[in-house]
Amino acid sequence: MVDELGKMELASAAFRDAVIALFERPVAVVATVHTHTHPLTDRLKHRPSIAVVQLTRSNRDELPTAIASRLLLRVIKR
């Protein structure tokens, strides 16, 4: 879990390096990401293995269960 990939966090080179290293590992990652344009988050959002889910008022209550289900399916497929 990464909370969050936002403007302040991305200002840190050490943090960016840690995020890049994390996304290179064969582990499931759930992260909150700002919607603004940033080279790192833009690259992450466009990776084939990434599913971007927008949090809205209408989906916020069921989103935790939906994310947990996706993670569980990933574990089962291993």
Average pLDDT works out at: 94
Computed over alpha carbons, the radius of gyration is: 13 Å
Strand content: 5-15%
Given as residue ranges, the uncertain stretches (5+ residues, pLDDT < 50) are none
Roughly how much helix do the residues carry, as a percent range? 40-55%
Largest sheet: 2 strands, parallel
Following the backbone from N to C, one meets helices and strands in this order, namely EHHEHH
Strand order of the largest sheet: 1-2
Alpha-carbon distance between the two ends: 20 Å
- What is the count of DSSP helices, taking H or I runs of 4+ residues? 4
How many domains? The number is: 1
Globular, elongated, flat, extended or rod-shaped: what is the shape?
globular
The total count of strands amounts to 2
Class by alpha and beta content: mainly alpha
| Quaternary assembly | single chain
